[in-house]
Design brief:
Elements: H1 6-18, H2 32-40, E1 52-55, E2 58-61, H3 62-73, H4 88-100, H5 102-106, H6 117-122
Antiparallel strand pairs: 1-2
């Protein structure tokens, strides 16, 4: 996640609140570690419009990453499950529309500015 979009920031805070196993770590893609991870995965480090969810050594991106993450954290995350019924092409289209307009739709913020304890514990920077 880019760490600047209100939607991404709220998503990170929701992950920190809902992940009971405390296994999910969050890394802004613009951080040095985030940039290195994207390069290592063969992804474009300049593309700040996608979420990457690493699970069992496999990089999941876009809406598929968010759906899988929702399954893994459970609770309200399961509400994302019906999106998996959409064909991958439709998922990618929907994700790109939201990602490209995220600042206009949701605004900007700084996820790392004043993170609460749960989020601070998960941040990899």
């Amino acid at each position: 996640m880019d760490g600047e979009c209100v939607l991404c920031t709220r998503g990170a805070r929701m992950i920190a609140r809902l992940d009971r196993r405390l296994g999910i770590r969050i890394c802004p893609v613009k951080s040095p570690l985030g940039q290195a991870m994207l390069c290592h995965l063969g992804l474009d480090p300049d593309d700040t419009e996608t979420w990457v969810y690493l699970r069992d050594g496999v990089a999941h991106t876009s809406l598929a990453a968010i759906i899988l993450l929702g399954r893994d954290i459970g609770g309200p995350g399961h509400l994302l499950a019906p999106l998996a019924l959409l064909p991958r092409v439709a998922q990618d289209w929907l994700y790109r529309r939201i990602a490209r307009n995220r600042y206009a739709m949701f605004g900007r913020t700084d996820m790392c500015a004043v993170p609460d304890e749960k989020l601070r514990h998960r941040l990899l920077t």
